[in-house]
Every structure is written in C-alpha cells, then in structure tokens.
Amino acid sequence: MAGYVYIVTNHKHGTLYIGVTSDLARRIYEHREGLTPGFTSRYGLTQLVWYEEHWDVRDAIQREKTMKQWYRKWKIALIEERNPDWRDLYLELW
C-alpha cells in the first residue's frame, strides 16, 4: 500500500505540521474541515504546501519520523524548493 508524507500550515512561514497517510486527499480534507481534534485544528493548519508519495507506507512512516526531527529551516527549505509561493496544493490533487 502506498503512503504520503505531507506538510500543512496556516500561512506562509506559519506553524508547520508533518503527517503521513495512505489517502492524501481524504486526510487533507479532514484537516481543512477541522474534523480531527488536535494540533492541526487548534492552529488552523489547513493548507497543503508539500507532499511526497512512497510506494510502501512503511517508508512514508519512516520519512515522517525523520522529518519531524529536522530543524524548522530544513522543513522550510524543502517546501520552498518545490513550492516557493507556498500555494495550497490541495486543489491540485484532483
């Protein structure tokens, strides 16, 4: 089963959250609608600014764990490498 690692935020250079899922569109919809109580809904993290797909969800889980240990500036650099304008990529999933 495939997996995705993703980063959501509330605005450019705002609070960042790294997550992992097997269904990216569904999970981001849940973040956008505030359907899951916790960190992302508390801080209004609704904008998908970065993601990557892994063929095996176990690889995605390991990547998420690694990235959560990164310095914030590394995460920002990763986002800006592929999405310098911090566009919300959610609509591009369709």
Automatic annotation (TrEMBL):
Residues 1-77 form the GIY-YIG domain. It comes from the Bacteria. PROSITE patterns: GIY_YIG. SUPFAM superfamilies: GIY-YIG endonuclease (SSF82771). Pfam families: GIY-YIG (PF01541). InterPro entries: GIY-YIG_endonuc (IPR000305), GIY-YIG_endonuc_sf (IPR035901), UPF0213_domain (IPR050190). Coiled coil: none annotated. PANTHER family: BSL5627 PROTEIN, UPF0213 PROTEIN YHBQ. Belongs to the UPF0213 family. This is Putative GIY-YIG excinuclease domain, (Excinuclease ABC, C subunit N-ter domain-like). It comes from Pseudorhizobium banfieldiae. The lineage of its organism: Bacteria, Pseudomonadati, Pseudomonadota, Alphaproteobacteria, Hyphomicrobiales.
